[in-house]
Amino acid sequence: MAPTLETLLAHPDGIPAHLALPAPLHCREYLLDGQLRHWPGPTQTVTSPVFVPGAEGPERALLGSCPAHDAAVGEEALRAACAAWDQGLGPWPNLAAGERLACVEDFRRRMLEKRAEVVRLMVWEICKSAKESEQEFDRTVEYIDDTLAEYRRMQDEAARIVAAGGLDARVGRSPLGVVLCMGPFNFPLNETLATLVPALLSGNTAVVKLPRIGRLLFSPLLECFHKAFPRGVVNVVSGGIESVTPVMTSGKVDALAFIGTSKAAEAMRSLHPHPNRLRCVFGLEAKNAAIVLPDADLDEALPEIVRGAFGFNGQRCTAIKLVFVAREIADAFLERFGSAVAGLKCGLPWEPGVNITPLPEPGKPQFLQALRHDALAKGARELIPGAGPLGVPGGGALFAPSALFPVTPDMRLFHEEQFGPVAPVAVFDDPEEALRAIAASNYGQQACLFGRDAARLAALSRRLRNVVSRVNINCKCQRGPDELPFTARRDSAMETLSVRDGLLAFSIPTLAVLRRGERSTGMLDAL
Fold first, then answer.
1. Are residues 241 and 379 in the same domain?
2. I need a surface site. Which of 141, 214, 306, 393 has the fewest CB within 10 A?
3. DSSP string, 60-88
4. Domain containing residue 469: CATH number
């Protein structure tokens, strides 16, 4: 059933008690140079994509406000991080590995105590379903645990003596310096900490720029950072691009960890006066494709493609954003695909079994509708009755899921990342057509293949691995498990993230070497 305005209004009696609309949280605290400071300046009002009954009709739920920091705060945060780094001679980079581990473990323990509060704010602020919000929090804790374990293994590896050419050496890794971490709105907690934690463990100091959407959910964690880490190691900035522009133009940032769009990443990198000195760790947009071969098992393929395309409203870089289906099975695929998409439940994030929730990005429904109109005007047809934005006074936030066929190269949806609940489907006569389209794309993160012929799947997979970084066979595109490398080609990524790769990305190999002799063993033990 198509959603209506009334079904999407949040009434107090329909909200679970543990997820009830919190009292407005007007956060003026921020963490800088080891102090939780009070911000006296301007703030940004934070509202939810969820509408509630108001005196004059439906209105967005007020969640609170957060600091709108300016350039001066960004500069002060940078000075604090630079002082803690002190050109590599500061206390944090020279702290024993075990002591840095203890600080991160302390943060993890304190963070766990804030689980309910962070999850509730995530549900309201970015409208991620309650189940998925809990999963994001728990996955982040698991990522921290795995990173701690991997860091211990790397310390054990560094303790071994390497003998070569008459020399004995201990090979370890050392930090890069000051890191600027910028996470996204769709996985604000996980993606921010997935770069920050390995950077800190490696001995770097950090300036954290909170996501444009999803800032408020970090407010319970400020105290955790404050109590777990020494002065200046973690500094948190909340504001627009103006708050971190001077951070980059200073040339004092050694690594930029950014999850977002390639356009924004390039703009940030271009601000640095010495780009050759800047280590960039980017997770960017993608246009991941699914190729459904003539012999595909549709009972297996369809659930994977639907979950891959519409999980968290399609607001994932790893979402399936273009489906290629073989012409001989297109009719059967479209009938079942359309029925499955039409059955997705639209609603509020705490409703059991909800699939599609309101979108947090301002203007996103209008953007998606423009992509739909372009495709429809050029010959595609809509497979889902009632697809499109729900009209709500003041600008609706929910976009009922859409599936369009046939999408062709002259349509925007064939090339542009939609990052929303719209699934374009194209048809092919030869898989080569799909491979060539993926290769010609600006993006190169992942693809998936659905079929039964092992030899054919292997041949296609070999070629696709030269075009994208990960080929998923008979399963959807995804980031995890976090033990596996997560990277991409072209405009979709720079560097690699995973439990081990994250630690490698924020450090550099360093050696202590001496001539082999009677005294070398004792010296190496001391080192």
1. no
2. 393
3. EEEEEEEE-B-HHHHHHHHHHHHHHHGGG
4. 3.40.309.10
In a domain, 520, yes or no: no
The residue among 283, 311, 327 that closes a domain is: 283
Question: Which domain, by its residues, includes 127?
Answer: 6-16+27-283
Cα dihedral sign for 253, 258, 262, 267? negative
The tokens of 192 are what?
């921010």
| Residue among 243, 254, 260, 165 nearest 209 (CA) | 243
* Shared domain check, 194 and 296: no
Write the pLDDT tens digit of every residue in 465-501: 999 999 999 999 999 999 999 999 999 999 999 999 9
Asked if 204 and 175 count as a contact pair (C-beta separation under 8 A), the reply is: yes
Q: Give the SS3 label for residue 197.
A: helix
Given a cut of 80, whether residue 521 has pLDDT beyond it is no
Q: Cβ contacts of residue 479 below 8 Å, gap of 6+?
A: 318, 486
Q: Tell whether the torsion through CA atoms of 300, 304, 307 and 309 is positive or negative.
A: negative
Q: Helix/strand/coil (H, E, C) string of 126-176?
A: HCCCHHHHHHHHHHHHHHHHHHHHHHHHHHHHHCCEEEECCEEEEEEEEEC
Pair of tokens at residue 260: 């977002």
Query: Do 458 and 344 belong to one domain?
Result: yes
* Number of other residues whose CB lies within 10 A of the CB of residue 288: 30
